[in-house]
Every structure is written in C-alpha cells, then in structure tokens.
Amino acid sequence: MKLLVLDAGHCLNLALARLVHRRSDTELVIEPGLAVDAAHLRELAPDAVIIPPLSAPMEIEPAAVITHGEGVEACLAACRQTDTPLVWCVSDQLYQDGFETPIDEHVIPAPRDESLRRLIAVGDSIRRSHPRHLIVRLGPLFALEGGHAWLSGVIDSLVNGEEVRAAQDVIFCPTSADAVAMALVGMLHQLACGSNAWGAYHLAGTEPVSAYTFTSMVRTQLSTRLEGLGEHIALGEVKALKHHHDQPLRRVLNCRRVLEAFGVHQKPWRLEVGRLLDEWCQAHQVTSEEDRASP
C-alpha cells in the first residue's frame, strides 16, 4: 500500500514515518503543504491521501484556518478526479461548545466561529461528493517531535524553568500521535482488503482530563525520572487557567464506532505519555553524558 501524506513535518506524519519504517507492507510519500493536483495523483498513484489535523484551530488566526480549508478542498477535487480515497484528520475543537456527554460520530460539529464553520462546510462537501473518505476527529495530539507536538513544547518549557499555563476547565482526551498513526494504517489496510466502512470516526485517548491536570502529570513524572537519573533541574511551574466560570467545557469523543468497525482500541494517554517521557529521558541522558565527555 502506498500512502501520500501532506504537510511534511507535522507530528502525525513523523509518527507515520516511524511506523511505516518498521513495516514491509506500506510505502509512505510525504510532501509539504496541501498542494496536490490530479496530475500528480495520477503520477504517484497512491492508495490514499492523508491530511493531518490543523492543531488548535480555535487558537490561531482565522486566515490560517480558512487557508487550510481551501487546501483540503483542492485536495478533495484532485481525489475526486482520480477516485483516490481521502483521509482528513480534524481537531476536536470543531466541537466548539463541547457536550455534557461523550460525542458520537454522527454528531456534526456546529461551531459559532465563522472560520471553523468554513471547515464544517468542507467536511459536508467531502461526505456529499466523495464516498471513499475517512474523516477522523482526534483529541489533542501529543508527541516528542514535529509540528503541533504539544508534549515536546511542555517538556522544553518545564526544563527551561518557564511557567506553563494550562486550562483547568476544558476537559478532553489527549491522543498519542503514534497511536493515531497505527490506527490509520490499520484502518486503510482493512479498507484496501474489501471493508466498506468509510465515513466519520472518532479517535482519542482514554480518560478525560483537563489540560492543567495533563500538564501537571507530565511535570510530576518528568521530575521523578530526572531525579532517578541524578539530574537536579528546577522545573517550571504549572499555572491553572479558567475560561469557563460556570462549568467545565467537555470535549470528550465517543470512540466506540472505530472499535466496532476496525477493532481499534483507544490507547491510554497516561501509558503513552510515560513511554514518551522514558524516551525523552534516555535521549537526555545520552546528551548529558556526551557533554560531560567533551573536552
């Protein structure tokens, strides 16, 4: 299977590259930006095109959100002309106001923000005009490297002694980029083998948590690991922010359908964070030893 992945450098694309490197049944072509046309798709002949999510669309310039939507539309047009399956990953922030209960796949986001509504219109167009599609709504992605990796930025700030601010009243399910990569490749292989389970799916980590609690846990576990290595680093503090004074905003995705259709289980984000912190500490220890050995 050959997959074309757009927006090189995104943390999800790096996770896909690491995964595919360990497999013999999947080839990955990664290209910058979202610019792809039908002629290029005919030349490459990929089995699917994957567009990684625009991270935190509520927190960036509306123009960037609109530009992303235009890129997805152009990609959709090329995929329709060549009958190439399209996988579009989107942020859970499209559910701008959240829900009190876990959000099922059939619930179409209805954000108030105009630029976010532009993305909803793109999704409507995909569902209406291109049957062989996956729209995969994700919780906040985290990884150690790549664009929009989140966790790497938290670690860097803490190690530099900087204060990290995080919302205490926004509840979501953090999602490992590695887990998403594994799920996407598995889903696409099943679809290539005759499954007809195209459509919208939710994919997120287990255990809803606030950004503040997530970040605090990262700080605690990082501190414990560094002390175990004999490293004495004064980590920065985590400050709680409140944006919703009446009640917490819950943005929890119900991921039952992806389990039923593809057998994909949600990965516990605590275990994934622990694994990544172990990797970071191993790399940090090697770097420290090399620095001490340098003349």
TrEMBL record:
Coiled coil: none annotated. Residues 68-279 form the RmlD-like substrate binding domain. This is Sugar nucleotide-binding protein. It comes from Billgrantia pellis. The lineage of its organism: Bacteria, Pseudomonadati, Pseudomonadota, Gammaproteobacteria, Oceanospirillales.
